[in-house]
Design brief:
single chain, TIM Barrel, 29 strands, binds alpha-D-galactopyranose, Rossmann fold
Length: 661
């Protein structure tokens, strides 16, 4: 019987980091023990990239060094999240099995010397991965230090080799049943692409011009299933020897090679990694965006932040620093939204190797440093929050998220390069976050009737089931906002004929989109209500909806741009362009009002983030984060777990966790 709660074993929320002691020696390990106690670390992730040490040659294992570290951590009161090292096969493996190396779409076969250089579809890799997972589980499955299993690291590597081609064909046969059905699904009647034998079908490798979109979409679906199957094999090998929860760290939000809804169903606890892509307030918004997605993947169950950086913001290929205080604010930002603690990558900053300059809990400067002081302060705070363990968060707005729609916007031949799914998803979340409203993400085929408001950005691909689900949602009283370029294609990426969006949804929106008219890069348009749009415009006519704003330019002058339809007992809103941030925020504010959605904690000024965690027995905690440089008086003073005293105000940049509200 699997123990699904990690916090039971830890006696509170988790705090710690990826721990790679094999980079160091005895004196440093001794200092690690002392510093982990100071920082109140109670969980360390071991072994993520340790394959070469654990199995120095095929099927010969060396566990002595790992035994010593696990026992040392255990003696020091630190539990272990033990990883399988399969994200980084050692050089001996690739030399013995060169066919298991990644091949790029252009045919380049990569070599070892980095990490993640394996093809998941290669039989030699899969059996080596099962073997080491099983050997680890056999040895450590019931070790008293073991809190959980961490399979692999950030699954998501793709490959286009011959093993992949063979596995893809097996998957396609199962999905389509016959070559005729595949030809029909992929629209191969055009451009002379018709397949007459399965051997002719390839992964979408480098081509002269546009790749077939159906093939590209199916390839993503195939890889997602392949990744989940590879995870399941390791998980099941572990479960044969261990009753501890098994998970893998998912990488959010921009790493979309997996159907995360499907993957999350396989995990005993959802765990995710998060690195913001802009500093300052944008980083805090990114934390919330990430955390809301992570929680939603597990259907609201408690989850765990498995990696964050103490001082790492990825701005393209530049790594920016976080602001002072962000270590605590980002940690609490995740905990506020349901995380059962916070783990960092990594404990001690490497002195050599590929990630020497990646931030860590103990920086190169050592413990006498701002970073370690903030880490220690954060560890002390997390240690005071044990009573939050197992409590959950409730949201009143859902933003729809569909991996198929994401992949659909990645195929060749679309009318605009600016239909970017990830940006659209984050843009939908941001004004809701600014308004203090807690957001769940939901798949468009999920039951969403409990949310008074549902926002649907960028659902370019919309399955028949999803279209009917959303129609019913509006008919039964929901308020739905559908945004431009949605419902243009069905689940096979075939265009919807007779007008967009998909017919049953169109009924709820009371409109019919007849023509899409993408805008030039940097072109801005003005609507009749004074709001501004960019990227996209549409020629649409109302079929029952009222027009709230019209276009004021070119051939679209006077035609509807933004509409609302009373349908059944609900309302279907349609926005046919991408509004500027402030105009979009105003629209979201209007929808919140119409749908009767209040902020999670009313009465707080802009820039103060607040989320309530609820325990099943009725206890509640408000987690408050002040992102402003001003002190903010609290409308309702209460006992703050951080200071163990009554809190009347939040200091500038400060946080509080108020009990009983
Ligand atoms: C990922 C990985 C870690 C580390 C960090 C660096 O999240 O899982 O091993 O490389 O990125 O940000």
């Amino acid at each position: 019987m699997t123990t699904r709660s990690i916090t039971d074993r830890l006696g509170g929320l988790a705090f710690g980091g990826d721990y790679n002691p094999e980079q160091w020696d005895e004196p440093v390990w001794k200092e690690d023990d002392e510093l982990m106690r100071r920082a109140r670390v109670n969980l360390a992730t071991l072994g993520v990239f340790s394959w070469a040490l654990l199995e120095p040659e095929e099927a010969r294992y060396d566990f002595a060094w790992l035994d010593a570290h696990i026992d040392r951590l255990h003696a020091n009161g630190v539990a272990v999240d033990l990883a399988t090292p399969t994200a980084s096969p050692p050089p001996w493996f690739t030399l013995a099995h060169p066919d298991a190396l990644v091949v790029r779409p252009d045919g380049t076969r990569l070599v070892h010397g980095s990490r993640d250089t394996y093809c998941l579809a290669a039989p030699a890799y899969r059996s080596a991965a099962r073997r080491i997972a099983s050997a680890l589980a056999e040895r450590y499955g019931d070790h008293p230090a073991l809190a959980m299993w961490h399979v692999h690291n950030e699954y998501g590597t793709l490959c286009w080799c011959d093993h992949t081609a063979a596995a893809f064909r097996v998957w396609l046969r199962a999905r389509h049943g016959s070559l005729d059905a595949l030809n029909e699904a992929w629209g191969t009647a055009f451009w002379s692409q018709r397949y007459t034998s399965w051997e002719q079908v390839l992964p979408p490798r480098a081509t002269q011009w546009h790749k077939n979109p159906g093939q590209a979409l199916d390839f993503h679906r195939f890889w997602s299933d392949e990744i989940i199957a590879a995870y399941r094999e390791q998980r099941d090998a572990i479960r044969a020897h261990s009753d501890r929860p098994v998970t893998t760290n998912l990488m959010l939000p921009a790493y979309q090679n997996i159907d995360l809804w499907a993957f999350a169903r396989e995990l005993d606890v959802v765990t995710c990694d998060q690195y913001p892509s802009a500093p300052g307030l944008a980083a805090a918004a990114d934390v919330a965006f990430h955390a809301d997605r992570a929680r939603s993947l597990g259907g609201g169950r408690p989850w765990l932040l498995m990696e964050q950086g103490t001082n790492t913001v990825y701005d393209g290929d530049r790594v920016l620093a976080k602001d002072p205080g962000d270590i605590l604010r980002h940690t609490l930002g995740h905990i506020a939204r349901g995380s059962e603690g916070a783990i960092f990558f990594q404990w001690r900053q490497s002195r050599a190797g590929a990630e020497t300059w990646h931030s860590a809990m103990v920086p190169h400067a050592g413990p006498d440093s701002r970073i370690f002081r903030e880490v220690t302060q954060t560890g002390e705070v997390v240690a005071r929050l044990g009573e939050l363990a197992g409590s959950t968060v409730s949201a009143s707005v859902a933003v729809l998220h569909d991996p198929d729609a994401w992949w659909a916007l990645g195929v060749d031949g679309l009318p605009s390069p600016e239909l970017d799914y990830h940006t659209a998803l984050a843009r939908a979340h941001r004004p809701l976050w600014d308004a203090g409203v807690t957001v769940d993400f939901a798949h468009p085929e999920h039951e969403v009737s409990r949310y008074p408001l549902v926002v649907a950005p960028a659902l370019f691909l919309l399955s028949d089931r999803a279209a009917e689900n959303l129609r019913r949602y509006v008919a039964d009283g929901g308020t739905l906002l559908v945004q431009h370029a949605s419902g243009y294609a069905d689940g096979r990426l075939h265009a919807r004929l007779g007008g967009y969006p998909a017919a049953p949804l169109r009924e709820a929106l009371g409109i019919r989109v007849e023509e899409y008219r993408p805008l030039r890069q940097d072109e801005r348009i003005t609507l009749s209500d004074g709001s501004h749009g960019a990227v996209w415009s549409e020629s649409l006519r109302t079929e029952g909806a009222e027009t709230l704003a019209t276009y004021t330019h070119g051939m679209l002058t006077g035609s509807p741009a933004f509409t609302r339809h009373h349908y059944g007992t609900g309302q279907g809103w349609y926005l046919s362009t991408r509004l500027d941030d402030t105009d979009y925020a105003a629209l979201v504010g209007r929808l919140l009002k119409e749908a009767g959605v209040e902020p999670d904690v009313p009465g707080l000024p802009a820039g103060v983030e607040a989320v309530t965690r609820h325990a099943p027995d009725g206890r509640r905690w408000q987690v408050l984060l002040n992102h402003t440089p001003e002190a903010v008086p609290l409308p309702d003073p209460a006992h703050d777990l951080l200071t163990d005293a009554l809190a009347h105000e939040l200091p500038p940049g400060g946080c509080a966790v108020l009990r009983g509200h």
